[in-house]
């Protein structure tokens, strides 16, 4: 594949880094042939620093690593698009993405430390990852007044009871053939299933992988 890539006169190629799960653009950096090969070998993103003139692995010091899931290149073969699973934040400022300001300099995205990051401006599957992260954070911090924290405090039996109740509500709504009720009850069920997944240590990617295998 490296033979297909066109490096510039300085031996570099720009790499756009994108969140594999949500499609959000995280950052842009440069690679040379050596960092490109290390990225392929390790499955982690490696770049070339033009200012320091040395290789560096994303998250080597901060722990905010990027697991490579897919690599694409453009029609001119001189730009890479690398889709990753981002651990922590991508930007050194503490924002999830380096592209967190609009043209007037206003911040358009919250810090990932608040777990309110926006995966997409449109409705899409990214909301599942966002919700999963919020639920995981509630379990870790157990904030007072949080319904999610309440479920974790009550334990597995309570969570299972709610999953059962919400499943029944979905059945009733479907039998009534009222679409908005079906949407509402399915959403409740999905939320409680995500709580169960966090309690059991099941990742969303594991579910998607299982569904893909059945396809």
Describe the structure.
The chain is an alpha+beta fold and 215 residues long. It is 41% helix and 17% strand. It has six helices and six strands. The strands form two sheets. Strands 2-1-6-5 form a four-stranded mixed beta sheet, covered by helices on one side. Strands 3-4 form a two-stranded antiparallel ribbon. Helix 2 packs across helix 5. The longest helix has 22 residues. It is elongated and about 65 Å long. The two termini are 28 Å apart. About 6% of the residues have low confidence.
What's this entry about, in short?
By secondary structure, the chain is an alpha+beta fold. The chain is 41% helix and 17% strand. The strands form two sheets. A four-stranded mixed beta sheet has the order 2-1-6-5, with helices on one face. A two-stranded antiparallel ribbon has the order 3-4.
- The geometry reads as elongated
Q: Major β-sheet, in short?
A: 4 strands, mixed
Q: What is the number of strand segments?
A: 6
Count of runs of 4 or more consecutive helical residues: 6
Structural class: alpha+beta
Average pLDDT confidence is 88
Order of helices and strands: EEHEEEEHHHHH
Task: Provide the helix percentage.
Answer: 40-55%
Q: What are the low-pLDDT stretches, counting only 5+ consecutive residues below 50?
A: 110-122
- Strand fraction: 15-25%
- Distance N to C terminus: 28 Å
Cα radius of gyration in angstroms:
21 Å
Across the major sheet, the strand order is 2-1-6-5
Which descriptors apply to this entry?
215 residues, alpha+beta, four-stranded mixed β-sheet, two-stranded antiparallel sheet, 6 helices, 41% helix, elongated
């Amino acid at each position: 594949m490296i033979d297909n890539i066109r490096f510039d006169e300085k031996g570099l190629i720009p790499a756009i880094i994108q969140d594999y799960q949500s499609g959000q653009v995280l950052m842009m950096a440069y690679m040379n042939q050596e960092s490109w090969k290390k990225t392929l070998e390790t499955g982690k993103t490696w770049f070339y620093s033009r200012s320091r003139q040395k290789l560096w692995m994303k998250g080597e010091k901060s722990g905010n690593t990027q697991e490579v899931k897919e690599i694409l290149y453009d029609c001119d073969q001189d730009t890479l698009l690398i889709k990753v699973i981002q651990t922590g934040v991508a930007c050194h400022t503490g924002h999830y993405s380096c592209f967190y300001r609009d043209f007037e300099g206003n911040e358009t995205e919250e810090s990932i430390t608040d777990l309110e990051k926006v995966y997409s401006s449109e409705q899409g599957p990214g909301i599942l990852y966002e919700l999963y992260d919020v639920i995981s954070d509630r379990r870790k911090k157990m904030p007072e007044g949080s319904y999610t924290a309440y479920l974790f405090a009550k334990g597995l039996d309570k969570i299972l009871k709610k999953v059962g109740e919400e499943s029944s509500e979905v059945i009733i709504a479907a039998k009534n053939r009222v679409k908005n009720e079906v949407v509402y009850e399915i959403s409740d069920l999905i939320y409680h299933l995500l709580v169960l997944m966090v309690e059991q240590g099941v990742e969303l990617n594991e579910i998607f992988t299982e569904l893909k295998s059945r396809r």
